[in-house]
Amino acid sequence: MPHVLITGAAGVLGSRLRHHMQALGWTLTLLDRATRTGAAIATADLAEFRDDWARRFAGVDTVLHLAGDPRPHASWESVLRNNIDATHHVLEACCRGGVRRVVFASSNWVLAGHRFDTTPLEAATEPYPVNPYGISKLVGERIGRAASDQRGLSFVAFRIGYCQHDDANLPGPHMGWGLWGQRMWLSSRDLCQGFEKAVLAPDTVRFGVFNLVSNNHGMRWRIDDAASTLGYVPLDSSTPVETGQSAEETEAALHARRLVETAETLVIRQRW
Q1: Is 128 among the catalytic positions?
Q2: Same-domain status, 45 and 178
Q3: Domain match, 218 and 248 both
Q4: How is the chain split among helix, strand and coil, in percent rounded to 5?
Q5: What domain range is 252 assigned to?
Q6: Which candidate in 128, 133, 162, 232 is catalytic?
Q7: Mean pLDDT over residues 264-271, rounded?
Q8: What is the tens place of the pLDDT at every residue in 23-32?
Q9: How many independent structural domains does the chain possess?
């Protein structure tokens, strides 16, 4: 049975994965910045490298690095500390502790700027983050690549889809971001399946970035590489529903994107 350490274990994703892996009988070490009662979760501020939490990584097989500021509107100040610095410190602790693999919670926000394109979205698609949060996740992927290349750490990054905070996590037009949001829906059991498969993947998997979404109708996210490399096959699917309100929101978002791109062309490329 693997020994798994989960950072951000008290969060939404961390709680779901913690309960799933406890049911599998796996040995768990749990860390979170927030203090929680009712679970054996140690308090650790990963943005500050400290031996008192770093020593917990020794003897661990796989680390699920979920900790960080998950808000799309998070500030640069927050993501620099809680996403970028914390990820660097976690990977350093992994290398020092002899951890075999890290499974990193990246995000579809890395590719958010492609929302109004029509091409398939895969690991090789040119990154197009539109906010500090998306940039911080892209940086986390690159830190992981360096740790894999230079220090031998196996690193798997999941660009996680739309997994809602409420327990039901049901798809539908209430999700926001129009059809784009619904098409990247990720069910709770597909979330758990993906991370379980990543933990159990063979040692030949040294580095990989994969989309983690359910099998939704009309989606552009390629998941065949996750199937062939990790064995991830979604158990759930949804059919997006467009309403008049969601169509209006999508049109407004498209208009805003065009304004931003026009301003970028004028200010940065021609006038700066």
Answers
A1: no
A2: yes
A3: no
A4: 45, 15, 40
A5: 242-272
A6: 133
A7: 70
A8: 999 999 999 9
A9: 2
